[in-house]
């Protein structure tokens, strides 16, 4: 079972031994708002995500997970990639084509591996 954004936040905050009060103050939000986010009663503002990742000292993969969980709560695309997708017609066409033909997870993994190999050659 996957966790939601609030559960992720609590887990990472506790791992870093950061009190909710301190984190709320560092983010410039109220303790009540922080509590509501952690309990899943409210959604976090996308503008706070980069600072939150910094304060929690998240790895790149943990940051991606955080962005994805925040987006999942809003049923939208992760804030860290939305602009990139919307500014590139070819990416939107690629995603729609993949959706249309039903690209499998294995095919996506192969494509990602090819991109990484190609990127390493530069």
Attribute tags:
122 residues, mainly alpha, 8 helices, 0% strand
Task: Describe the structure in your own words.
The chain is mainly alpha-helical. The protein is elongated. The mean pLDDT is 93. Helix 2 (20-27) crosses helix 3. The chain has helices at residues 5-15, 20-27, 31-38, 49-55, 60-74, 79-86, 89-101, 105-120. The relative contact order is 0.10.
- Total beta strands: 0
Distance between the termini: 39 Å
* Morphology call: elongated
Uncertain segments of ≥5 residues (pLDDT<50)?
A: none
Proportion of residues in β-strands? under 5%
Estimated structural class = mainly alpha
Radius of gyration from the alpha-carbon trace, in angstroms: 17 Å
Order of helices and strands: HHHHHHHH
Give me the number of helical elements.
8
**Largest sheet descriptor:** none
**Assembly state (oligomeric):** single chain
What average pLDDT do the residues reach? 93
Summarize the amount of helix as a percent range.
over 70%
């Amino acid at each position: 079972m996957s966790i939601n954004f609030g559960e992720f936040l609590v887990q990472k905050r506790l791992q870093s031994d950061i009190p909710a009060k301190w984190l709320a103050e560092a983010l410039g939000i109220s303790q009540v708002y922080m509590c509501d986010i952690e309990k899943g009663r409210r959604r976090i503002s996308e503008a706070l995500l980069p600072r939150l990742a910094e304060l929690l000292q998240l790895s790149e993969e943990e940051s991606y997970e955080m962005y994805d969980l925040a987006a999942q709560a809003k049923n939208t695309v992760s804030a860290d990639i939305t602009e990139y997708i919307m500014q590139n017609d070819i990416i939107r066409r690629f995603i729609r084509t993949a959706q249309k033909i039903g690209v499998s997870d294995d095919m996506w993994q192969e494509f990602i591996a090819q991109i990484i190999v190609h990127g390493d050659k530069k």
